[in-house]
User: What shape does this take?
Amino acid sequence: MHTRTRVDTTPDQPGFVPLTSYREYPAADMVHRSREFAADMQRRRTVREFSDRPVPREVIEACLEAAGTAPSGAHQQPWHFVVVTDRTIKRAIRAAAETAEAEFYATAPAEWLAALAPLGTDANKEYLEVAPYLIAVFAERYGRAADGSRIPHYYVMESVGIATGFLLAALHHAGLATLTHTPNPMGFLNEILERPPNERAVMLVVAGYPAPGVRVPDLNRKPLSSIATFR
Assistant: This one.
């Protein structure tokens, strides 16, 4: 027997409205939809060679709107996405990122470099100039009230991580290839993109069409039995 718990939200409860957006599907449809989505996401691969073919801005806007639907701590939505298409800005980002990456590859522990070796990564980040879109993801560590006082944000990194996951899934669903780039340190993004001090750069999402004939590492994802436990 299946039981449903009823939550009494009366029409006059302040700040609440009826849930009208939820859509329930028959069990068979749920299985089909979930399997179809999982299979589609299995096709997602990170690429490091992009085409410079233009992508309609409307596609990126819609994907960002999808990212903005992510749940967040106290619904404070502590994220900001800066979309970069300007060639000069891209060039500046690439130069700063490659400087940080060169230092990383020169000083990183051997174990870390060995783990990266199968992916074929190095300090050269040509894709930062070639791809039509760079999306810089910023975490808002705190907000500002009208009087200038700080508004604390909660579960910031968890919230931004979920929103970025939504963004990657949306971009893939739209038919674009992506790459997540996390140069360390990333403070240069605040400077180049003129972001306020309450924001912390989290990552760059590179988005566009894959370059013709691009090759990717021959990797396997962990099976469900290795990543999930049912009790």
About this structure: The CA atoms of residues 5 and 202 lie 39 Å apart. The chain has one domain: 50-211.
